[in-house]
Structure formats: structure tokens, C-alpha cells
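In this supplementary section we document a worked example of the pipeline. Step one takes a protein sequence of length 109 as its only input; no multiple sequence alignment statistics are reported here. Step two produces a three-dimensional model, which step three serialises into C-alpha cells for compact storage. The input and output of this example are shown verbatim.
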Amino acid sequence: MTRLTAELWVSAYMTRLRLIGIPAFVVAHGDDTAGAVLVKLNTLDGQARAFQRSFDLASGDRIWGALVEGDEASVDAAIARQRGFDPDLWVIEVEDREGRHLLDDPGLA
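The serialised model returned by step three reads:
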């Protein structure tokens, strides 16, 4: 199976969010071809979560799991540390009071 480039995946994800009215922003533009992607969900109440894509070893499927969650400043600090390790990392910030991020939707893993 052919994998999408990071740039194409981010573009499709941003479009999907925009179509249902969920604001999202590219906070850090990573490597267009092979950069990893972190998605920060800001619930606009001082809390946030950051998601990263990984493999479920039991099933072999790609899944989105929480990297860190808590107050927004702590989540931002964790993302900054990840960017320090990986300058090719994309960071997308999604802002939704209802906590919607669409990462569980089919086709986004």
C-alpha cells in the first residue's frame, strides 16, 4: 500500500475539518514528504491534548493515541520538546470546545 506524503495528509485533514466548521492551523510545517504529524486539540478552556500516530502492535493497524494531555501550557511544552528532537515534525492545532478532532474517522489513521 502506498503511503501519502505528510503534506498531502495534512492538506486532506485540514480540508475535512474546515468542511464541518472546526478551526485548525498549521503551527509547525514539517518535512513535506516524510515528516511525522502531531495534532494538538485545544478545547479553549485551558486544557489540551496532543495526539501522535503510532502502530498497534497487536493488530498492526496505525492508530492515533494521546501523547500528552492536561493544561495547555504543559501540552505546549511537551510539543516543543518533541520539535527539539524532530525538526521535521508537523504540528496541527485544532480548536474545538466539544473536543472533536476527527482522528477516529475512517481513512485518517
